[in-house]
Amino acid sequence: MLTTIWTVRNRSYAPRPIDYDFRDRQLIVPHSYAWYCGICGEVWARRVVLGSKSDPEWIFWQTPCIACGRTRNCFQLPGSLLHAHHDLIESMPDDLLAEEVLIQSEELYESTLSHP
Ligand SMILES: [Zn+2]
Question: pLDDT per residue over 33-66, tens digit each?
């Protein structure tokens, strides 16, 4: 049984079960992910997959944190995870998803104000 734990913006979310991936007729342990800010270097989000006999395999994504994103004109939405692919988004706890939607809507609102 595999478990995934999300830690985002200094908040840890309740562990959730996660299935093995099935690829080329093999069961594969899903990757662990970390999101880091390319400006300040902070790792501001991670999804760790636990419960496998092997060590987690990590994938790192560069996405600006919210604090740095406020001072720069960033291509990506700072501090948001919703650019991830769908099976990652599906593995998010509901309360994390709700927070992500809030960040997206606040950003949309701000960009509407600054670009009328
Ligand atoms: Zn930063």
Answer: 999 999 999 999 999 999 998 888 999 999 889 8
Distance between the two ends of the chain, CA-based, in angstroms? 50
Name residue 18's amino acid: I
Whole-prediction pTM? 0.82
Partner residues linked to 18 by β-bridges: 2
What lies within 8 Å, CB to CB, of 91 at 6+ separation is 4, 16, 18, 30, 47
Q: Distance, CA 69 to ligand 1 centroid (Å)?
A: 7
Question: In angstroms, rounded to a whole number, what is the distance separating the alpha carbons of residues 30 and 50?
Answer: 10
Q: How many CA atoms lie within 13 A of 99 on its CB side?
A: 15
Asked if 2 contacts 49 with a C-beta cutoff of 8 angstroms, the reply is yes
Question: At 31, is the secondary structure helix, strand, or coil?
Answer: coil
Q: How far, in Å, from the CA of 63 to the mean position of ligand 1?
A: 9
Please state the separation of Cα 67 from the chain's center in Å: 16
Average pLDDT across the chain, whole number: 87
